[in-house]
Amino acid sequence: MIASSAESVVLTPHPLQRVGAYALAVLAGAPDPHRLTRDAFDQAVSTMAEDATGAALVRDTKAARGFWLKCSQSLFPNSKMNHMPTLGKRTDEEIGDGVRRWRTRPPEASWPGVPCALCGREAVGFFGKVDVPLAESNVYRNNTPRGHEGLALCWPCVCSFHALPYGCQLTGGSTVAVHSWDDQFLAHSVRRQVRGNRMVIGVGREPRKPPSREVLALRRLRDYEHRISAGIELIVFNNNNRGQTLETYALDQPLAEWLRATLTGGPHQGSFRPLLRAHQTADRPGIVNMARNAFRDPQRVVTTCGHYLAAAAVTGNHRPDTDRIAAICYSYTTEVLDMDDSTLKEIQGTAARVAALLAAQDSAGKIKAFHADFKQPARLRSWLRRQAVWWMLAPPASVPDPAGALVTTRGYELLFDPGADSNAWFHREVFLIAVLEELHRLRWRPSDAAKVAVELTNDDLGPTDNGFMFHRDDDEEDQR
Ligand SMILES: [Zn+2]
How far is residue 329's CA from residue 303's CA, in Å, rounded to a whole number? Predict the structure, then answer.
């Protein structure tokens, strides 16, 4: 038997429905979907219908207040709010009536007698992409085959999808949802987004340039004060008639929590700026590159830092924040990338001895040659073998324990294990950072370093980085 479809919003396994349910709760002034009263639910549904009517009455997506109308084409294509061929011909009243009818629960007599595909309560109809993003794409699973009427949904689930855009970053084209199975974080994230969007959707204010999708997720983490208990997904979708798209990116829980703790201060207070500096390029701010690496290729956070430090070291110089960057990379490597402490210590031990060898020579050319060898594992291995012999014959005077080997058997294995599951390439990246950190700690500066005309101290953060770290968000601004 199908449960009755009371106007209570429940959370289902559909991430976009969940984002929408939380957005609906915020619109209704409730702390979460579970505490949404029937009256507040009706009020929120009515607010959304009025917003949709207001957008439709602009009739022109390029008009000053046409942003929500433009967005709606990528969210609710061919709906009563944006059917462009007819909008220009209809009176305000006709448009308002059409939108309100679309946003009114279908009469009980027309219900199909099947359960809601998402929550199992009684469906009020079948819904396609006019109401549900991607519901008719021929690419994705939840499609509507020819001859089928769509996705069976109850009214609260339909209304969750109508509320979804309020909880997303709107761009005018693709829409970006930040989702997590950590309900408390999701509530926080959606609340922030809805507040900003109310000014864009309800008041018609021109939106600011949206941040990149990955930076958006970092913003949400930055101002979240609690430990996050699940990962984060970025869902980028476009429901437009001209081509539906869906891209998803995920941050696993350890990385999400590490970023949150680092961004909000935590044990690495002061280290986030150097991390961003290491990621800054001529064409992109550090935060954008860092966020992209975190979502798409987490190990690249470490390799990028290694390249940044090495670019200075090959001239015989050091980045002034070398120690901070090395420390944050070690933390990232053990807490996020799961390297165990004994592995890190072995790599650091090898690196300290190699750094002592390099520091014993008063030439920037030596580190340059070492770095050239580093890029080719076979050459690095033979370099280490050669040095190991010299090490045994005449260890550098500065070495505290000259009796030990330059590289232990385990050290070799960590750096050069050819096995299919081997993570040797990544161990070498950590090794490089550890060598450079040790040279920095030894204050090694060969006498020819000064000749290298490289300015290493004026690579300050660009304005966008500063904006991300130290200024208020768009959505905070919008609340004023
Ligand atoms: Zn449902």
Answer: 9
pTM over 0.85: yes
Phi and psi torsions of 121, nearest 5°: -80, 175
Q: How far is the CA of 154 from the centre of ligand 1 (A)?
A: 4
User: What's the CA gap between 244 and 377, in Å, rounded?
Assistant: 44
Domain count, the chain: 2
Cα angle 444, 460, 445 (rounded to 5 degrees) comes to 10
- State in Å: Cα 56 to ligand 1 middle: 27
Segments forming the whole domain that contains residue 26 = 15-248+473-478
| Ligand 1 center to 299 CA (angstroms) | 40
Q: What's the CA-to-centroid distance between 116 and ligand 1, angstroms?
A: 5
pLDDT digits (tens, 9 = 90+) for 169-185: 999 999 999 999 999 99
- Rounded to the nearest angstrom, the distance between the alpha carbon of 114 and the centre of ligand 1 is 11
Looking at the domain assignment, is residue 264 inside a domain?
A: no
pLDDT confidence of residue 139 = 47
Q: Which two tokens stand for residue 88?
A: 């220009």
Same domain, 313 and 177: no
